[in-house]
Amino acid sequence: MEQVTIYSDGGADPNPGIGGWAAILRTGTHEKVLTGNDPHTTNNRMELQAAIAALEALSRSCHVDFYTDSQYLRQGISRWIEGWAKRHWRSETGRPIANVDLWKRLWNLSQKHKIKWHWVRGHSGNRYNERVDELARQARLEITPEVSLDREVPRLYVRASVSGNPGPGGWGVVLEEGGETRQWSGSEAETTNNRMELRAAIEALRVLPEGTPVQLFTSSDYVYQGATSWISGWRRRNWVKQSGQPVANADLWRELDGLARERTLQWVNAKGKGEDMPLGLVEAARLAADAREVS
């Protein structure tokens, strides 16, 4: 049987939202790249779709080393799926399995090959994992509408820096308004990266009066997705997740929610901009790192 190595990745931004997926298939000196997207999807569905497309591209049975940074995909296909199938695609508690349509397709495809499923830590320097991550992002951006930004509206750029997570941390804020730039920063002796990202956004919104229109730039998926997708549900459930667990950092999320609702706020996700990262975010990152060092 032919030996094939596959790397795959997928994601949505926000989650749920616009998604993209990618897979790289390698055998000998040959390489095949697959990508796709979906305007209404989730991170998990894109991870599954990437794996399905990769296996569908194999024309005959193969020995496959399959690499993914999704524990949802790896654990599901290598540990949980046989039990789901035996229970007619229900969990041990009797609840229907999420994304069952894709799990069934993947299960059928996986039976045609001898597959070793490997987990690789995301963004850890693995060459092919980094490539599929970037390819999936590009596929998502192909169908992502351009964000319309009014240059006359004040812009806030927020970044955080933490050593140790938890450990000493700093936050930085840059405000661009009316052709002028102002800066703020602060620190905490013992904190986490997520708390510092939230603190940066909170302190940023405090510098502008209530009712002020503002664009807030962040490179934190945690803050962006929380503020644009999750927070309304948390608020309705009194800061409890659908699972019944308390929302992490609820004290800061409540504070941010109150400030955001008092302003005409447009969130801008600047993650993955690379060389196109706004200079305001670059400067906010420097401020955060400097503040952390003196905390």
Total strand count, please? 10
Q: Which sequence of strands runs across the widest sheet?
A: 3-2-1-4-5
The run of helices and strands is EEEHEHHEHEEEHEHHEH
Largest sheet: 5 strands, mixed
Shape: elongated
Which structural class best describes the helix and strand composition?
alpha/beta
Describe the structure.
With about 300 residues, the protein is an alpha/beta fold. Helix content is about 40%, strand content about 30%. It has helices at about 45-55, 70-85, 100-110, 125-140, 195-205, 220-235, 250-260, 280-295, and strands at about 1-15, 15-25, 30-40, 60-70, 115-120, 155-160, 165-175, 180-190, 215-220, 265-270. The longest helix has 16 residues, at about 70-85. The model has no long low-confidence stretch (mean pLDDT about 95).
Topology, pairings included?
Layout lengths: L1 E12 L3 E11 L2 E12 L1 H14 L5 E7 L2 H16 L13 H11 L3 E6 L7 H16 L12 E8 L4 E11 L2 E12 L1 H14 L6 E6 L2 H16 L13 H12 L2 E6 L9 H15 L2
Parallel strand pairs: 1-4, 4-5, 6-9, 9-10
Antiparallel strand pairs: 1-2, 2-3, 6-7, 7-8
Helix pairs in contact: 1-3, 2-3, 5-7, 6-7
What keyword list fits this structure?
5-stranded mixed β-sheet; 10 strands; alpha/beta; 8 helices; 295 residues
In a few lines, what is going on in this structure?
This protein has helices at residues 43-56, 71-86, 100-110, 127-142, 193-206, 221-236, 250-261, 279-293, and strands at 2-13, 17-27, 30-41, 62-68, 114-119, 155-162, 167-177, 180-191, 213-218, 264-269. With 295 residues, it is of the alpha/beta class. It is elongated.
